[in-house]
Amino acid sequence: MASEEIKILKFSEKTFEVIAKWSKNCDKPEDIERTSEYDIFCQYVVKPFEKFCYNLGMFVHPLLENENFSIEHSNSYILHNYSGNNFCLRAYFTTSKLFFIEITQWGINIGINQEPYQELIINLSRDNPQELINLFSINPNLISFKDYLHLNIKSIVHHEKPLNLLRNVAEHFEKYLPLIILKTGQNPIPFINHLYSPNNRDFDWEETGFTFEELICWLGAINRKGQAIIYGSPGTGKTFIAQRLAKELVGRYGFSELVQFHPAYTYEDFIQGIRPQSEDGKLTYPVVPGRFLEFCKKAEVLQDTCVLIIDEINRANLAQVFGELMYLLEYRDQEIPLAGGNRFRIPENVRIIGTMNTADRSIAQIDHALRRRFAFIELRPNYDVLIKYHLNTNLAVMDLINILKQLNQAINDKNYEIGISFFLTPNLREDIEDIWKMEIEPYLEEYFFNNLEKVDEFRWDKIEKQII
Fold first, then answer.
1. Which residues pair with 379 in a beta bridge?
2. Is the CB of residue 52 less than 8 Å from the CB of residue 108?
3. Could you tell me if 249 and 226 are in contact, meaning their C-beta atoms sit under 8 angstroms apart?
């Protein structure tokens, strides 16, 4: 495992040694707080466990959104005696305490609490017998009280892909999601049937070239604000990253859509407006919902996160296009009347991700009222992606990277740097001359229009021998 990923999970063999020592020397869980080694216990056990629960929550909470995902207890954990003097830290992921996660001296256990589970089954059999029959016809294994997931010390400390580790845990929680839906939903069976639709999350986050820690940070920012803008210079992979983040957010059961803004895009296109229509030879002027209202209408019937990606968000007049949405972006729990009639609120499960090319318009030029409503995620040229992409090609990619670094240093403005997506093509050796002459050089001529001597330093005939 890379050192950076160990830092993310923060577990070590020392963690489990401390738990074993604590279990052996303390008669009651609360005794540890009165010992001289409590600071060590917090450093090696409590803090790593809290961090792991937080990271896990980023993947689990869309599945449990019906019951308001939360890790209970003021310190995000509960001291628990589960067998003699064998103690653990336990956190609950729903207000009903149906799902739990605990760390012991042998590893981490994830499962269901037997008492609330049994109570739920009894209540469902009494109040909704047909729904219970339908539920178990779909998944007959739900009645098992002993089913839990155990992650041993080795899998936690030495796992090479923390993201995959958390996904495995999320899949275990997913099994019991129908029970939560039955407990909280008014019409649960259609949605339970929807749970078993094909899973489209068939990618690995590592292919993006960004770290797992950055993923968690970005997902947290999007969920906290409700909307974010990914910004950077041309070729930094803004749309690619937006689509990958959207897949992480929607999980298996939500959906995402993409709309591209342009200078002619209007409030009527996005929110709602009058559209002339012909009916039986007569011209009518109904108020027709725009792209965002249609998106929200589809999202509100689902209880999973739904993401609208707005590509090139800065190319439109945002204040004009968003209209009343400016208010609702900040006050997500409010409902207000729209200019053309009807009342509207943004469903709680809707997220917005915009992409912004800083070569077209910098952040400084965006209206301040709009800026404070979004989280901003900056992308810079990520040369590691280029290295990984061309591992099995015969191109001297490091020589290309050195040229790009020299070029971006000459540009000396992060808003106009040359990104790496221009060169993510499997036949780069054959294509690179055309790419450089027809895409890179025209871009440089526009940027250095008053200093073309700078461009001459990076003409293809000057750099060709350094790359091929």
1. 232
2. yes
3. no
Q: Residue 73: its pLDDT value, please?
A: 40
Q: What's the pLDDT at 444?
A: 94
Residue 49 near residue 68, CB atoms below 8 Å: no
d(C-alpha 437, C-alpha 443), whole Å? 10
- Cα separation values, 150 from 76, 78, 154, Å: 21, 19, 11
Query: Measured in Å, how far apart are the chain's first and last C-alpha atoms?
Result: 34
H helix count then E strand count, the chain: 23, 16
CA distance 48 to 52: 6
What pLDDT, on the 0 to 100 scale, is given for residue 144?
66
Q: So what's the pLDDT on residue 133?
A: 76
Question: Tens digits of per-residue pLDDT, 49-94?
Answer: 888 887 777 667 666 655 555 554 434 455 555 555 567 788 887 7
Segments of the chain scoring below 50 in pLDDT: 1-7, 72-76, 197-201
**DSSP H helical segments within 2-110, as ranges?**
3-9, 13-25, 38-41, 47-60
* C-beta neighbour count of 442 within 10 angstroms: 11
User: How many CB atoms neighbour CB 429 within 10 A?
Assistant: 15
> What phi and psi values does residue 87 have, to the nearest 5 degrees?
-105, 160
Instruction: State the pLDDT at residue 464.
Output: 87
Question: Based on the number of CB atoms within 10 Å of its own CB, is 281 exposed (0-12), middle (13-18) or buried (19 or more)?
Answer: exposed
